[in-house]
Amino acid sequence: MKDSLKSCPHPWCSKSDPQVITSDTFVIRVICSTCGFGTPNAYTSRQKAVSEWNHRPKEDKSRKEIERLRKHVAALQDEVEDLSSSGPHASTEEWSV
Ligand SMILES: [Zn+2]
């Protein structure tokens, strides 16, 4: 079974390569084989280790906020296009975002 692992969260990791590691004592962790960053705890369940690795509340919150802002910018760009095609000033070339 292939685990669905998010990429390595370490900011300086050059090549994310997370892997589920099981030790001789059957302790399970997820560790990036590139930089060595890993889950802070070890688990007896593979599913729990993967869940801990993929648990990124701040990252998930940031992604949602970025998506919300992208939609907002797209809506504003549509409004600008509507205004520029119907208003007295037809050109928006000098505008910057
Ligand atoms: Zn890494």
List keywords for this structure.
single chain, 97 residues, alpha+beta, 2 domains, two-stranded antiparallel sheet, 2 strands, 40% helix, 10% strand, elongated, binds zinc ion
How would you explain this protein's 3D organization?
There is one protein chain. The protein has helices at 46-54, 57-86, and strands at residues 18-22, 28-32. The chain is of the alpha+beta class and 97 residues long. The protein has two domains: 1-55, no CATH class; 56-86. The chain has a two-stranded antiparallel ribbon with strand order 1-2. The radius of gyration is 22 Å and the shape is elongated. The N and C termini lie far apart (46 Å). 10% of the residues are buried. The mean pLDDT is 88. The structure holds zinc ion. Zinc ion is lined by residues 8, 10, 13, 16, 32, 34-35, 37.
Low-confidence stretches: none
Shape from CA axes? Answer: elongated
Radius of gyration: 22 Å
N-to-C CA distance: 46 Å
| Average residue-wise pLDDT | 88
Task: Output the structural class.
Answer: alpha+beta
Tell me how many strands there are: 2
Q: What percent of residues are in strands? A: 5-15%
Bound molecules: zinc ion
The number of domains is 2
Q: What quaternary form is this?
A: single chain
Q: What's the main sheet like?
A: 2 strands, antiparallel
Which sequence of SSEs, written as H and E, runs from N to C?
EEHH
Query: Percent helix among the residues?
Result: 40-55%
Helix segment tally = 2
